[in-house]
Every structure is written in C-alpha cells, then in structure tokens.
Design brief:
heterodimer; A: about 110 residues; mainly alpha; B: about 900 residues; alpha+beta; 6-stranded mixed β-barrel; 23 strands; globular
Chain lengths: ~110, ~900
C-alpha cells in the first residue's frame, strides 16, 4: 500500500477532523464517526488511525494542558494538514469518477 | 455526584500493558472526559460505567496490534522454537500414556505433600500477626537466673515497676486470665474473661468497633474500674449485635459493670475471649506471685537489645528489695505467640521431610527420563543427522520434563486440597490458625517454583547425558544397544543410591517418632484417668472463705451421694491443662540457707482427691474433713519430694517451711505417689498438698470418679449444683482420658505424617530400585541367554543380578545412616525417652530398607531366570 493511498476508515477519520474544525481529538472524532456512519468505533482504533495519518503527514497534532476532568491528563488535539486536504480531495475525486454513470437500487439496511 | 469512572486505575494498568504511557493517557483522558461530560449525565451511573469498561476492553485489541506489530511480524525464533518444543513434548507425552501417568503421579505425590505442608507452614509460621507494626510488639517474661528459670509470668509489683520506670516502650500492658460468671440472663454462664491493664489494646493498636477502649486510670485503684469491653463473638451471641449495648450494665461475678465498647470481629488477641475487664493495679507486695502476661510496644527505632538493657537496669534495682531471688527479664518476639518452639520444630522437620520426598520423586523421574532417552536413541540420532544441535535436543528434553513438572504440580495442588482437609480433620490441637490454612497465592507461588525446579532438575541429567556424536553406531544399533554406555549405568546406580539414602533418612525420622510415641504410651502417669472427669465451678467474690469451704464440703457431699459416683474431690489447678502454682520450700532445719530451697508445686485438695485420682497413699495419713489450711500447717507431699528433702529418712513428722516462710512451718503428715501432672512427657511434679478447706481459691476444679461413663452424671451434677446455688454454672467439663490423649495428640500427629511421608518415600525408592534393575535385565536378555547357554547355573545368574541391584542400595543405606546421624539431632526436642541416634531405630530401618530392596531386586532377577536361551539368541 503506497503512501498516497487513503483507505476508507482513514478517509472517514480525516473527514471527521475537517468537520470538527478546531474541536478535533480522539473522542470527538469517535462520536462524529458513530453519529454519522452509525457504526460502533473504539477509541483505540481511532487513535491507531490518527497515528497512521500523522505518519503519512496528513494530520498534525499538539498537546493541550492537563485537565482535572481528564484525571489530570493532557488532551492531544489533531487537525488536517494541507497534504491531508489534498489527499482527501483526490480520494473524493476518484470516488466521484467511479460513481459517474452508475445507479443502483436498494435501501441501506439500518 | 461522583464524576470519575470507578476503577480508572485498573484500566490504566490494563492498557499500560499494551501501550506506551503517553498513548495510554490520551485514551484514558478522552474516556474520562467523555464519561463525565456526556455519558454520565445522559445514561446514569450504572450504564455509564458499563460504557466506560466496554470502551476500555474494546480498545485492547487495536492497541495490542499496534504495540506488538513489529515483533510478531518478524516471528521471534525463540518463541517459535519454544512453541515447537512444547508441541513436541505434548505429543510425545500423549503417545506414551503409561509413562506419563507414572511420572505425573510420582510428581503429584511429591509436590502435593510439599504444597500441603507448606500451606500449613505459611499460615502458622510465616504469616505475620494482624497487628499494625507487629514487629515492635514484644512479650516480656520474668526470669530468675539463679534458679535457672527463664520463662515466667510477671508478678503485679514487678510489672507495675517496669510500667512506671521504663523508657524504651511506647506502651506496656499486662493481662491475666479470669473466668467470670455471667448472671442476669435466663441461665448463668461462665465466660472466658481477661483482666487487662488500660493500655492493652493500645499496645496491639486494636480499636473497638463501637464505644471506646479502656481509658487511662481505669486500671488504677480508685479509678472507674467497673467497666467492661465485650468480645465480638460474645456480643453477637448474647446481644445479637445490638449497638445499644454500650452504656448498659452487665453482671459479672455478681458485680454490675458498665459496657463501654465492643471489640472487632475475630480475636484481637490469640485465644477466644468473651469479655475484657480492667486489671486493677495491685499492691506492692507478692513479688513471688507470678500471674501476668506482659507485653509492650517498643518506641520506633528502639531495638530489642536497647529495651533489654533498659529493663535490666530497672530489674537490678528491684532485685535488691525482692525476697524472691535475683530478677531478670527476657524478650520474646510477638510472632512466637502463634507457634511455640515445639510446633516450629515439628513443622520445619515435616517441611524437610516433604522436601526429601520431592527429591526422591525427582530422582525417580530422572531415572524414567534416562531410560526413555536411551530408548529414543535412534530418533535422537536421526534428528542429529538432520542437523539438530546438541543444545536444541537438550532443550527438547528439558521442555518435556518441565511440562511434566507443571502437570504434576497441577495434580499435586489437587492432592494438597485433600491433604489440607485431612490435616484439618485430624486437628491434633495446638496448631493455631489451622482453620485458616488453604491454598493462597503464596502457596501457589511456592508450588510453581517447586514445579519448575523439579522440571529442570529432572531433565538436566538425561539432557546432558544424551548420547550425541557417534551417529553411525546409534543409527545402526538403534535402541538395541546393550544397557546404554558405562557412564549412564553409573549415573543410574548413583540415582538409586541417592534414593535409598534419602528414604533411609526419612524412615529414621519416622522410626524415631514412632519409638518415642511408643515410649510415651508406656509411661506410668501415676494417676488413673479411666472413668474420671473434671469440671470447674467459679465462685464469685461474694463468697467469703467460710462460704467457699461450706460450699465445697456440701457440694462434694451431694456428689458422693449420686449412685454412679465412686469418689469426688476438688483441687485448685486442673491437671495437664491447668496452670501451675509454685512455692519455695526448705526443711525447717535449713530454711535460712538459700541453696537449700527447692521450688515445688503446691496444690490445695479436699480429702477425697487422692482416692478420686487413684493416687496411692504411701505413708502416713490423708487430710480429714476437719483439717483446715494453716490451722495448723500440715502437708502431704509427693514421693519424689520426700526423697529429695529427706533422702533415706522417714519424712513423717518432719517439718518444712512453706514459701520459705518461718511463719508457715508445716508438719508432713503423709506421702502420696508421684503424678505426671503436666502429661506423660513431663517428669512427675514435686508437690506439696495442703487442705482446700479454709481457703478461697477459685475456680475450683472438681474431679469425679464414676462407674461407667462419667458424662452420664453431668445432668445430675447440674441439678445438684442448681439446688445449692442457682447462679453457679459448671464449665470446662473434660474426661481425664481425653486430656491425657490430647496431651500427646501433637506427637501422634507428627508421627503419623512423618510415617506417611516416609512410607511413600520408601515405595518410590523401591519402585526406583526395581525399575532400574528390571530395565537393565531386559536390556541384557541376550547376554543372560548366552550365559545360560554356556552353562551358567540359575544360582549364578540370580546372584549376579541381585548383587548388581543391591550394590547401590547398600551404598545408599550407608550414606543415609551417616546423613541421618547428622540430621536427627534437629528433631531431638520432638523425641521422648530415646536418643536421636537410637541404635534400635537405625538398625531396624536399615534392615527394613535392605530387605525391601532385596525384594525389589528379586522380581527382575526371577524374570532373568526365565530367559529361554534359544529365544534370546534367536533375537540376536
């Protein structure tokens, strides 16, 4: 898998970060994913994905201050990098081209 | 409202296994924040916690794959090899179920015995007392170096002097037992009470669960002494755990006391106690009246030696004014309260015995593995030819033996569960905390270590001795080779010798205990315990001396009227289980001579006591119903004391100073037979008997001799006592037979356990001797066939094989005897009537083992005789 590839879950996480603006960190990403995609996501896998994205240079992160609500632990905030935005746009481009002229019937099972 | 999720510390530990600390903290922080801000308000505490833990657990798989990703991708060769070896071991063990079963059984016996005894040792000897900083608590004993006594209770003035003057103890306290009668309920009851000085529970750092403890001054004369602390068990039993009991009045010995508190569950101090009352400071007299148990809590950082020096300086001062001889002190660490020295020795001896047993089991297994390795020569050779290194092959054998060790340990733990139940069911008495013994993590840890050690030790010899190198020969001969090489033969013989030596030592230990117990059974206690029963009645303070005497005489008279009763008497100390009352005595002629003072026991008795106990009156006369203590002073003495005071002379009419007091010079009116009052193991006591009548010692111990079972008269006794005083309970009913039997129950217990272990050890050793020789005979079938074909007689063949088999056994016996001579002295305190090097035992055990060894050799030898030379040669 090349550096440029953006598998679906990474795409979703990146998109969630874009939607969250400056409120992006592990738990908000998880909640965003759960509420929009309806699938159950563990915090562990969110972090694993965020770290992969960071290794690819698609997101950057910084630490907040320790917070008593968090049991004195610091928060790690994430935001997409310009590279990340480009990759996201490219992925969408690919998808749209693939969908061009395709129609399928059926209901999404909930 | 609690906002942090419960157990987040545990979650941190769990995730920490898989994640770097920072990564873990991001996740836990997120979870905590989400929990508090969003989940808790929406879903409520229970479902929020459910959510939290669900998240934690579900995070583990993705976290795990992250941290270990790099390692598993490369497939650690070490782990892979280990897994391979484990699979191989499991396969080959399953393929040979007979071998595996014998090996596992052998180890299960060895490890099970170890686990059982260790669990007792751990609970009784190793587990600390439940007190805060228990190592600062020490017991203090009086000593009288000039008389050679080093473990005495304290007298009142000596204790209070130390209490006033010492500087090394944070607190110091004293305790005396006190049987008290509880009245005010529907029936009177005798309670186990204790009198304690005010700081008693401060020394132990035990706080009452409700109410308060004793306050300063409540143990001083003139202070508020009429208070009581209840034991938890008594509180539950009598008051149903009602906390309003504090402030209520409880009537003990006819005196109303105010309940001030209830102690925590269990017994804060060893021994069951119903009620604690203040020990009121006594007057400064009676330094020779030793009754108090004394303990103290050392100041932080103060050593026992420093405290000893401080106390010694005080006792030196006391010694000058003391009429009772030179006074000293001795410290005893509190951990010894649980188990006295006799029990400690017994348990360590048993621990050593099971250690030997496990060694024997190991040796047996080593032998089996050796034979197995030899049988697998061809397989090994093929592996080696295909490029397996020597280390790799050794590892494989080790893996197999470690797997065997672990499986054996698992079975052993199962056996030890049974073993512990047996020990508890047998309960020899005198083993404290026995009910608490069980398999805990300490015991399991011990078993695991034993299993691993067993596995490595048993696998090492066959692993290292594995033939490797001469591939061609091995491939060609396969497992038909003779008996393995010379070195292997020598190893096996050494192992057999080791087994014989170890089992001989165990057998000697068991033999010594059996002989001791036998000696103990032969001892003449001097009194008759058959159909004798003792019970106690505690007389309250409202009975003066007059009333007590009248009560004794009346009650005994009524008891004698019961048809089944032969005789009844009273004494102030219960034989065997009671305490002791002592005095110095000197003949009237030499009473000023310090060196002529003899320390003896004194007993107050009613006239019929001797007849009831079956003590013969050897000379002179008994007391009469009219004799009163000190009016005038008259005494009956035991035979041994008569011989000591007036050797070769007639003691009747002679005079002796009781308590070496010129005011208490008594005439000797009779001599009775000696009596082993402290059980069969102790010498007959030197006793001075004086009349009970006229004195007020309580509780009174009554002795009844009946026709038939004494227990049958108990209801009648209660009725009779109720008619005399309905407020007096009967307590501590015990058959004298039981007391005598119980006093040697510990010996019987040690003997049985060591006997069982030695028996198992001998069976294992015999199996080893038999196995090795049988194996060798099978391997030498050809050779024997050739010999027989060439004309060797049966006798020749038999002799040769038996000699071969017995040589290591004899060597083992010689080595074992030497070892046993060295080791048996450690158990000398457990022996009675014989020396640790008792020649009868040693000779008997050696003969027993040699004979059994001969038997084990004979079976394979007989098999060799049946070898048909034609068959044997055809195989060639």
């Amino acid at each position: 898998m090349g550096k440029r590839d953006l598998p679906e879950f990474e795409q979703l996480v990146l998109l969630a970060l874009v939607r969250l603006g400056n409120e992006g960190y592990g738990m908000t990403v998880r909640r965003e994913l759960e509420s929009t995609s309806g699938r159950s996501v563990t915090i562990g896998s969110v972090y694993a994905t965020l770290e992969r994205l960071e290794a690819k240079g698609y997101v950057s992160s910084w630490h907040g201050d320790p917070d008593p609500v968090r049991g004195g632990r610091a928060r790690r905030n994430f935001e997409p990098t310009p590279d990340g935005m480009v990759a996201l746009a490219r992925a969408r481009d690919v998808m749209e081209r693939m969908w061009d002229g395709v129609t399928i019937d059926g209901k999404i099972p909930r | 409202m609690r906002t942090r999720p419960r157990g987040s510390g545990l979650a941190a530990v769990m995730l920490g296994v898989f994640l770097a600390p920072r990564q873990r903290d991001y996740i836990l922080g997120d979870l905590a924040e989400e929990f508090q801000r969003h989940v808790l308000p929406k879903r409520g505490a229970v479902r929020a916690h459910l959510w939290y833990w669900q998240q934690v657990f579900r995070s583990i798989p993705s976290s795990a794959s992250r941290k270990q990703g790099r390692r598993t991708r490369k497939k650690d060769p070490y782990i892979m090899t280990l897994i391979q070896d484990l699979r191989f071991a499991a396969r080959s063990l399953i393929k040979t179920p007979g071998f595996t079963a014998i090996a596992v059984l052998t180890l299960a016996l060895g490890i099970g015995a170890n686990t059982t005894i260790f669990s007792v040792v751990q609970t009784v000897l190793l587990r600390p007392l439940p007190y805060d900083e228990a190592d600062r608590i020490v017991q203090i004993l009086e000593t009288h170096p000039d008389r050679g006594w080093n473990s005495m209770s304290f007298s009142h003035p000596n204790f209070w002097d130390l209490w006033d003057q010492n500087e090394m103890f944070e607190t110091m306290a004293a305790m005396a037992g006190a049987a008290v009668n509880l009245t005010g309920f529907e029936y009177p009851e005798q309670l186990a009470g204790r009198r304690v000085s005010a700081e008693f529970f401060q020394v132990l750092r035990v706080e009452p669960v409700i109410g308060r403890g004793f306050a300063t001054g409540e143990d001083q004369p003139g202070g508020e002494n009429r208070v009581a602390l209840l034991g938890n068990g008594f509180w539950m039993r009598r008051y149903g755990g009602d906390s309003s009991v504090v402030g209520q009045t409880i009537t003990l010995n006819d005196i109303p006391l105010t309940v001030i508190g209830v102690l925590p569950e269990g017994n804060p101090f060893p021994g069951q106690t119903d009620v604690y009352v203040p020990l009121v400071r006594g007057s400064n007299t009676g330094r020779s009246d030793h009754r108090l148990f004394v303990m103290g809590r050392l100041n932080p950082g103060v050593t026992v030696d420093a405290a000893f020096a401080d106390l010694s300086a005080i006792t030196d001062g006391i010694g000058l004014q003391d009429s009772d001889g030179v006074l000293g002190v001795r410290m005893r660490p509190s951990r010894e309260w649980i188990a006295g020295s006799q029990l400690r020795v017994a348990l360590w001896v048993l621990m050593g015995a099971v250690g030997f047993l496990l060694l024997i089991a190991c040796v047996n297994l080593t032998n089996l593995l050796l034979a197995r390795a030899t049988g697998r020569q061809r397989e090994t050779a093929v592996c080696a030819a295909l490029g397996a290194t020597r280390g790799r092959l050794t590892n494989r054998i080790l893996t197999e033996s470690v797997v065997l060790g672990l499986v054996g340990a698992a079975a052993g733990v199962g056996l030890s569960v049974l073993g512990i139940r047996l020990v508890q069911a047998f309960n020899p008495g005198g083993i404290p905390r026995l009910a608490e013994v069980g398999i805990n993590h300490w015991v399991l840890g011990f078993t695991l270590v034993a299993a691993l050690a067993t596995g490595v030790v048993t696998g090492l010899v066959p692993g290292l001795q594995m033939p490797y190198g001469n591939l061609l020969t091995m491939l060609r001969d396969g497992d038909r080779g003779v008996t393995g090489n010379r070195r292997q033969h020598r190893t096996r013989s050494a192992l057999v010798a080791a087994e014989a030596a170890l089992s001989l030592m165990l057998l000697v230990g068991a033999g010594l205990l059996i002989r001791s117990f036998n000696e103990l059974q032969q001892v003449d206690t001097g009194f008759d315990s058959n159909n004798r029963m003792s019970f106690q009645v505690s007389l309250p303070g409202s009975y003066g001396n007059e009333q007590r005497t009248e009560f004794l005489s009346r009650f005994l008279g009524r008891i004698s009227e019961i048809p089944q009763v032969h005789a009844a008497g009273a004494v102030n100390m219960r034989p065997i289980v009671g305490g002791s009352s002592g005095m110095g005595i000197a003949t009237a002629e030499r009473m000023d001579d310090e060196s002529a003072v003899t320390w003896v026991d004194w007993r107050m008795v009613t006239p019929d006591y001797f007849r009831t106990m079956g003590l013969p009156l050897i000379r002179g006369r008994n007391f009469t119903e009219q004799d009163r203590i000190g009016q005038p002073w008259q005494a009956v003495i035991s035979q041994q004391l008569a011989d000591l005071l007036w050797p070769g002379e007639d003691p009747l009419g002679r005079r002796a100073a009781l308590w070496t007091d010129p005011g208490r010079i008594a005439e000797i009116i009779g001599v009775v037979g000696g009596m082993r009052e402290r059980g069969p193991q102790a010498d007959p006591t030197l006793v001075v008997y004086i009349p009970y009548y006229g004195a007020g010692w309580t509780p009174v111990t009554f002795m009844v001799h009946t026709a038939g079972d004494p227990a049958a008269v108990v209801p009648t006794l209660r009725t009779v006592l109720g008619e005399i005083d309905p407020n007096l309970p009967i307590s501590n009913i015990a058959l004298m037979d039981d007391l005598v039997t119980n006093s040697v129950a510990g010996n019987r217990f040690n003997m049985l356990l060591l006997g069982i272990f030695a028996g198992v050890a001998m069976l294992l050793a015999l199996a080893g001797i038999y196995g090795v020789l049988a194996y060798s005979v099978t391997r030498r079938t050809n050779e024997i066939g050739v010999r027989v074909a060439l004309g060797a007689s049966h006798g020749n063949v038999l002799r040769q094989i038996v000699i071969q088999g017995m040589r290591p056994v004899i060597i083992g016996i010689v080595v074992g005897v030497a070892g046993a001579v060295g080791l048996s002295r450690f158990m000398s305190t457990l022996l009675f009537g014989i020396a640790p090097t008792d020649p009868v035992t040693f000779a008997g055990v050696a003969v027993l083992l040699a004979t059994a060894g001969l038997g084990a050799c004979y079976l394979p030898a007989r098999k060799a005789l049946r070898v048909d030379p034609v068959e044997a040669l055809r195989e060639e």
